[in-house]
Amino acid sequence: MSSTVSNPTIPIPPAPVGARKPDELVRALIRAGWSQGEIADAIDVTQPTVSRILSGQHKNPRYSAVERLRQLVQNLEEFSAT
């Protein structure tokens, strides 16, 4: 007889910032209170581009934009952890 121990109160940590897809990074910033326009300004793209990233319509955003998204989320998570 085997028993399975399950504890639903233990939160599953998010994937490391570097492993997240661009839409997940945008969602993390939106959950933190950023608007699509603020995200667009911070990563030097237009708001419609952020919207397309979020919806999955923009399959290959510029590397530089994705790196800026990763940096923003990493900074946000580091700030939240302190």
Describe the structure.
This protein is an all-alpha fold and 82 residues long. Helix content is 56%, strand content 0%. It contains four helices and no strands.
Strand tally is 0
Largest sheet: none
Would you tell me the overall average pLDDT? Answer: 86
The topology string of helices and strands comes to: HHHH
Defining traits:
82 residues; 4 helices; mainly alpha
Question: In a few lines, what is going on in this structure?
Answer:
The chain is an all-alpha fold and 82 residues long. The chain is built from four helices and no strands. α1 (22-31) crosses α3 (47-55).
Task: Record the SSE blueprint.
Elements: H1 22-31, H2 36-43, H3 47-55, H4 63-81
